[in-house]
Amino acid sequence: MHVPLSSLRLEGDHLDLDFGVFDWLDAQPGVTLRDTYDARLRLVREAERLGFARYHLAEHHATPLGLAPSPAVFLAAAARETSTIRLAATTFITPLYDPLRLVEEIAMLDQLSGGRLEIGVGRGSSPIEAGMFGLDAEAAKARFLRDWPAMLDALRSGRFVRPREGTGVADGGSTAASPPVDLFVRPLQTPHPPLWYPTSNAESIPRLVTEGYHVLFGFGFSSPPLEVMREHATVFLRESAEVDASVAAAGPRRFGMVRHVYVGRDDAEAVETAREALAVHYDSFTHLWRAAGSERFTGPLDDLEDLVDRHLLFVGSAPTVAEQVTHAVRESGVNYVAGAFAWGSLSEQQSARSMQRFAREVMPIVHAGLEHPKVD
After folding, report:
1. What is the mean pLDDT of residues 176-189?
2. Which of 81, 120, 248, 255 has the fewest CB atoms within 10 Å, counting from its CB?
């Protein structure tokens, strides 16, 4: 079974499919932290040069999986190194911030980037990391539900009203301890930068449709099957198009997937290199869970070839990866693919070459293939 071309939105004569870069900014064996930051900034510049739409950066704490505990700091550096690529924190874990402080940092970052910021938000996927800040999972959820609406309203209005503790309701400044705050640092984009929400929870999709979010549904080797993604992508893209038509939205909504990518010079080299890199990356991915003695995410990872066969990784030569991506997009119905090109033991040079091959040799084939319906 495949998704008919008619179910994928077209712009003019071209399929409305976009590509971005996703980065955990994970540790690389034998590379210093300073060199890692410098290498990733060069990667962002190269992604811009190659025409990727945006650069997504994850937030993690006290783990080799993520060396950007403050995405805003790294994205501020990236903003001054680039001029066109959009910069998406994916995500700001909002329960870990004072809401006023994060509102001001978001606004400042949007100004520094010339209006290229995009905001991913969430309550965080790791209860272990939340615990480092004195929060359990329920407290993190409650804080997200309480603070994020107030933050979004402040970005729109230029006035921050702190919610009362234990509620999702702003106090309106009725108490001396919490008067409204007029903001003199406002985002460049109005009413606010575009919003992203990463999720694998289908129940959140109706809310994300009505509230104007773009969605990343599933991450790499922990993603749901393509047929599950297709079901939710179809609903999201259809209903968001209806919502956006009524408010004259600036552009199409994105429903995307994140995939680890390695495009090698040939299939054999790609598989060999990716297998070693994935083992290192998975060790970082499971670090906190293993340290906590948790059984979650600590079992052995499936064999690389099995992950590729299940469309959870894109690995191979350029023609092979083009076929993998075309199949995954056609079967899932997504209109956005964010590729992770730097992970595990991949060197800066390997990541850059992989990204170059993807942009120059894979993306054109994917676009061409999707513009012609598959014949069974």
Report:
1. 87
2. 248
Say whether pLDDT at 8 is over 70.
no
Query: Which of 263, 258, 273 minimizes the C-alpha distance to 346?
Result: 273
236-277 residue pLDDT tens: 999 999 998 876 566 899 999 999 999 999 999 999 999 999
Structure tokens at 62: 């006290």
> Of residues 297 and 355, which shows the higher confidence score?
355
8 A C-beta contact, residue 233 and residue 333: yes
Planar angle of CA 195, 127, 232, nearest 5 degrees: 45
Token output for 49: 């040069």
The CATH number of 52-193, from 3.60.10.10, 3.90.480.20, 3.20.20.30, 3.30.460.10, is 3.20.20.30
- The residue extents of the domains of the chain are 52-193, 209-376
Whole-angstrom Cα distance, residue 179 to residue 248?
35
Q: What is the 3-state secondary structure (H, E, C) of the chain?
A: CCCCHHHCCEECCEECCEEEEEECCCCCCCCCHHHHHHHHHHHHHHHHHHCCCEEEECCCCCECCECCCCHHHHHHHHHHHCCCCEEEEEEEEHHHCCHHHHHHHHHHHHHHCCCCEEEEEECCCCHHHHHHCCCCHHHHHHHHHHHHHHHHHHHHHCEECCECCCCCCECCCCCCCCCCEECCCCCCCCCCCCEEEEECCHHHHHHHHHCCEEEEEEEHHHCCCHHHHHHHHHHHHHHHHHHHHHHCCCCCCCEEEEEEEEECCCHHHHHHHHHHHHHHHHHHHCHHHHHCCCCCCCCCCCCHHHHHHCCCEEEECHHHHHHHHHHHHHHHCCCEEEEECCCCCCCHHHHHHHHHHHHHHHHHHHHHHHCCCCCC
- Residue with more model confidence, 261 or 174: 261
Please report how many Cα atoms fall inside a 13 Å half-sphere around the Cα of residue 295, on the Cβ side.
0
Residue predicted with more confidence, 317 or 299: 317
Query: In the numeric block, which tokens belong to residue 336?
Result: 């956005």
The pLDDT of 351-359, averaged and rounded, is: 99
